Amino acid sequence: MHWVYLSPHFDDAILSCGGLIYEQVWRGQTVEIWTLCAGEVPPGPLSSFAQELHLRWETGVETVRLRAKEDREACEKVGAAYRHLDVPDCIYRRTPEGDFIVRGEEDLFQPLPESEQALAARLGYRIRHMLPPYARVVSPLGVGGHVDHRLTRAVAESLRRHIWYYADYPYVAKLDFDPAQWLAGDLKVYHASISKEGLNAWQNGIAAYQSQISSFWSSVATMRKAIAAYKRDKDSTRLWRQV
Asked: Hey, what CATH class is 2-242 in?
């Protein structure tokens, strides 16, 4: 099998599926992680919110380069290949009128703006012609409602393929999650148990995203405990596809 996981940001696929990816690779399957919002920071002034995030991450103007390096290290930990696309993160994107689509934390969680529909269409066309013919495409469900996760799902659903979906962690851990609320009709389930080695690789992969730990946890040790707890949740070992 050849799997292509679509990741909105450098960390999302491994946050959500790092253990599962490790197990697929260990079983001899090919896994690639394609990060959509991996483009360079556009020229011009940044929003105050983007500047705040750069300070929190301690990355400054080197944000994309450093996060891309973290992603390469994380992918190595779980055994996946990687590909970085050139769409800027939503904190840098603007509407055609020049306004930032995200000006604060609350703007991260919104329906995909009308101005982004053309971006989704262009990106879908491009990815459709990049994918290996028999690859199984895996998309985030968009649990949590992050605009870049919504963009990624919109792109996936424009590819004219059967799409598998994963639950977006850590957002899914905060909800009473039911995949039937996110996908219509009968669902096919892919499942793989995560071994002790898989859990360790998953935790090590997330730890490689040093700049992002503080966004979700107080320390790496706290992250490791949280991931160990999530591993016991059946949703951490599953993908879903509409029949």
From this structure: alpha beta
